[in-house]
Amino acid sequence: MPAEIQQGIGRAAAALTAIGAATSETVRASDVARAIGLGASTTGRLLTSLEELGYVRRDPATGFYSIGTAILELASHGLNQNPVHRESRAAAQELAQRIGLSVNVGIRDGASVVYLCHFEGALAPKSHTMIGMGQPLHASALGKCLLLDLTEDERRALLGEALPAYTASTITDHAALTAELAAAAVRGVCVEEQELALGRSGLAAPIRDATGGVVAAISVSGRLSVMRERDTDTITEQLIETADRISVGLGLISAVPHRPVAAND
């Protein structure tokens, strides 16, 4: 029985993932079946159960499937239960409105950074949200901040020896990543310039909890041309101040001693 329950949960999760990952709004039952490797009848029964539970929605006119409201409600509960989200939401939104750029807050989930907050300023409109999406740690400003407390050996164990390249500017060498993080620790922010996507640039500052450890990060990002038109020093100051405000809300009450980032501590 436990094996059957695990199989059922796995199939449901796979179906939800297939629908959520679709690049179009025309997801049919046959598309889901093909994506998860199940027969049409089995997939049909699975989707019917998920629809009854509110986890998926089937358009009665077209038969197309989409993520249901029950998933949105669960995601909302998950965000509201997260202390980083609660403490950072208002501060991040205020920063985005003040500087006109995109502001994101992320936490580490395994070898990825996952977005908890995403706000857009007037200079950085988007037609989609980044909340819940993941990005590689080594190629994003947010991700680099979440690596600051780790030694090089710990980063190698977490990320693996091979660091994937997303553009010609991506750091793909652990020694180079260690040097970049050491420089970031001194200046107080991590930098990303066309490392994850061409034409994009960003800065990020670490968010710490009561222990002084890095538990999240907040970033400012936008098109490269727009970022270069802004006063980087002013953005950096406001970003660090906002990160500090959130850290205080999480219980940080004393200064954190500077610890050099090295290959082995």
TrEMBL record:
InterPro entries: GAF-like_dom_sf (IPR029016), HTH_MetabolicPath_Reg (IPR050707), Tscrpt_reg_IclR_C (IPR014757), Tscrpt_reg_IclR_N (IPR005471), WH-like_DNA-bd_sf (IPR036388), WH_DNA-bd_sf (IPR036390)
One GO process term, biological-process aspect: negative regulation of DNA-templated transcription
Keywords for this protein: DNA-binding, Transcription, Transcription regulation
Domain HTH iclR-type as annotated: residue spans: 6-69
Pfam family, one: HTH_IclR
SMART domains on file: HTH_ICLR
PROSITE patterns (UniProt xref): HTH_ICLR, ICLR_ED
Residue ranges of domain IclR-ED in the record: 70-252
Tree of life domain: Bacteria
TM stretches of this protein: none
Coiled coil: none
Cited Gene3D superfamilies: 3.30.450.40, Winged helix-like DNA-binding domain superfamily/Winged helix DNA-binding domain
GO terms of molecular function: DNA binding; DNA-binding transcription factor activity
Record protein name field: IclR family transcriptional regulator
Organism: Leifsonia sp. NPDC080035
Organismal lineage: Bacteria, Bacillati, Actinomycetota, Actinomycetes, Micrococcales
